[in-house]
Design a protein that fits this description.
alpha+beta; 22% helix; DUF5666 domain-containing protein; DUF6152; OB fold (Dihydrolipoamide Acetyltransferase, E2P); five-stranded mixed barrel; signal; 2 helices
Length: 114
């Protein structure tokens, strides 16, 4: 019974790490900048996310953890849906319209997130 309990505990700890994506799937050698209007935003942990229409595609955007965004001066109101912003970061290597962002320019302010 003890082995089953230990196995279950180890699985519970490892599952979120396995489910969470790594950064190696993004091409850091080719930064891109998207400028447009956000269609959705999730201000949540382990990191925020957003969606933006750009060049005819709906892009998923991986933001930083909310504590980092707050600490760096990026507020939830600055990136609310409907806001026009610019984001610079790295697209996925496989061509999926998704990016991990490094910098946001919103409400006249540029914020470094990484």
């Amino acid at each position: 019974m003890r082995r089953i309990t230990l196995f279950a505990a180890a699985l519970a700890v490892a599952a979120p790490a396995i489910a969470h994506h790594g950064w190696s799937s993004y091409d850091e050698s080719k930064p891109i900048t998207l400028t447009g209007t956000l269609t959705s935003v999730s201000w949540a942990n382990p990191h925020g996310s957003a969606t933006m229409r750009w060049q005819g595609k709906s892009w998923d955007v991986i933001l930083a953890p909310t504590s980092r965004m707050d600490a760096r001066g990026l507020t939830e109101a600055m990136i609310a849906p409907g806001q026009r912003i610019s984001m610079t970061g790295y697209a996925r290597r496989d061509g999926t319209p998704e990016m991990r962002i490094e910098r946001v320019t919103a409400a006249g302010k540029t914020v470094e997130l990484r």
